[in-house]
Each structure stands twice: as C-alpha cells, then as structure tokens.
Input
Amino acid sequence: MILSDILNRVLVIDDKEEETRGLRDVMEADDVAVDYADPFKLAGVQFARNRQLIFMDLMLDGDINHLKTNISRIINILRNNIATGFGLYGLVVWTSHENEVEQLKTAIGKAYKADLEGKNLQAPVQIDGAAPAPIKPIVPPLFIVSLDKSKYNQEGYGSLLADLESALSQNPAAYFFTSWYGSVIKGVRKSVHDIYKLVPEYPKQIDELKYLLYELGNNHVGVGKGNDKLTEDSFKAFDELLAADLNSQQRSSQDLFNPKPQKQWGGDTSKKMKISALLNAKLFVDTENLSSNLIVPGNVYKVLNADSPLVVQNKHKDLAQFNLQYENVAIELTPPCDFSHKKVHSRLIGGFAFEASDLSKQNLEDISDALSGDKTYNLWLAMIGGRIMIVSFDFRHLFTPSDADLKDAAQYQLWFRAKPRLFADVLQKFSSHAARLGLANIDLV
Output
C-alpha cells in the first residue's frame, strides 16, 4: 500500500465528533495518530505540524442546501488555519456526489491561482487607524478525493484505507507523487542507516561521522582549503547517495501513462515557455549556493568588461533582426580533476544571454536555428532572476583570467552556478569540439 509509507498522522474536521469514532479506531489500529477539530471552533487555531491527510465533511454545517457557503468555509480553513509550513497533504472529502467535489476542486483551484497571481493577497482597507492584517495565502492540498461517509457509518471503517488506495489509483498525478514521496522517505532511511553502519561505535561516532561528511563534501566539488561552502557540499554529496538508493528501488506496478496523456495549454506559448523555464531552472541552475570568493567549476559570470576576450563580438548576424538585448557571460569549465589538484588559472568559455519572454514561437524556432552547431552550447529557456533567459556559450572564445581578476567585482559578477548535469554536458561537448580531428585532402580536379 502506498499510503503506509507516508501516513502517520491525520486531522479530522467535523461538527459531530461522535461520528469520527469509527475513523479514529481504524486509524489508530494502524498506528496512525488522529487529531480532531470542530470547524466552528477554529478561531485563532493554527495547524503547524504536518498531517498527511485531512478528513472534512463537505457539508460542515450539515445543510445540503448550503453548498457554496460550505465550500467557502473549507477554503477559509485551508487559508486561515493551515500554517504555511504545514507540508504536503491530501484532502479527503465526505460526500457521495461527485459533482459537488468538482465544484470544491474548482473553487480551491481558483483561490490558489489567484493567490499565486497576488490577487487575493491585497491587504484590506485600513479601518479606524488599525494596521490592516495581510491576507494569508491558501495552503492547497496535493490531491482531493471523495468518499461516502454513509457507507462507513453503516458498514464500519474496515475498508477505509483500501478505498483510499483505490481512489488514489484513479488519479495518476496523486498516485505518482504519493508513491514518490513514500520512496523518498524509505530512501532517506536507507541512506542514513548505511552511513551509520560504517561507524557503529557510539564513543567514536561523532568524530568519525564528522570526518566522513567532511570527505564527502571535499569529494563532491574537489576542493578543500578555502572552500567556505563545504557544509553545503556535504549536503549535496549526501543527496547523491540518496539518489543512488532511490534509483535502485523506485518501481511502480501501475502504468500511469496508458492511455498516453494529451498535450496541454494549446497554443499558449507564453505559459508553456514559463513552465519550461521554471522546470529547466530547477534542473540546471543554482542561484542560491553561491560565493563570489570561491571559484568552482560551473560558475557562470556576467562579463562586465566590454574589452574582455570573452565577449562574443558578432553574436550571430542572423539574430540582428530580433533586436535582442545581450548580456555578456562566461562559464568556468575547469575539469573537476584539475580543479581538485590546485589548478593554476580558471578556464572560461565566453558567451551571451538574452531574455526570451516576449519572443513568439516562430522567433524561438528561428533563433534556435541560428544558434545551432557544434561550436555553441545553448541553455534553452531557464528562469534566472525572475526572467526567462536563453544562454549561449561559444566554444571558440576561451580565456584564462587570474583568480584575482575573476574575483574583481568590476570585471565579473557571479550570476549562477550550473548544476552537475548541465556542467557535465557543457564540459563534454566542449571537449568534443576542442578535440575534433580532420584532414585537409588534396584535390587537383
């Protein structure tokens, strides 16, 4: 069962506590803690600790004629009583009418979308000189499923968990994320236990674990002395251990993509660009773990000196028609093995970047054609600093500045760091370009 890997605590919100006894009994028998709350006594209450499931009657006031009112009540509970750091959870709604559930899903979705766009979060008008309280964004559920409470009131709650599993299996996205979340929890346990097995003697454990983590951090980036991000690098090294454990265990008995899903968002190029850019940034771009004092492979800099050899002068004549506003950039491409053995100078490859937010689909296709070729490497659509960017590196522009120059804020500004997969791909393609061979044949014809 996929729920058994993640479920340890649930919240039941119902105006009739006596009707929750059966649910409480079946959950507690499975070693799941149950918390109860009256929906009309939640003023000032904040649920800050995660409960993986929230059970709530759709008709909180018991009146079937008050559907819209009760939907508003549910949204207000999710907005006002679920703390921002509550974590991932699923909402189980007691109702036998699917149409009512769809209305609830639509209303919660609209509220969440409006919050993301900032439309719901405007502070109310100031009254009597009192400072207006900001409106808290809704904490949306990961999934919403419905079950018929009357069935359990009549037959008991023995089939509840199996019914929940069945309901989740009908929702491919909910099934995937619940299964994935469970596998991560198991993977974390395995990764930590495997490391602790290496240091079983408690009197020595603190020193031995500290040393192991130190070496893992050094190994991750290949630098020791002078690395002021070594703790962060040890976390990343542990991420790699976790990834190895996850790869070996993540399996699914359910084919989530049969039938094949239909394409979404139609001709909305702007939305598709934004989603692509956000996903690419998560995969390839690190803008948080940066240090201008630490020069490491994968650092991407803005080149501020217009006379730098890294400035790509022509920037492809085919791009002139688009009137793009360029920023000169460069990526540090010293191989990790050289870097770990105290390299003398950094090896930078020059390039340029420009914003793509206002470009049409045809523009993007034409620009892609103009930037094609083995002499360039293109990071296509990545959200960096709130802007959708295209970044192009030109392998013909190679320069080795001194570390002092690279740390000079008047010449270089650290922009982001390429995550391992992006860095490895750029380095591999640069190496192929630099090592290409050819023969000049004689042709007397």
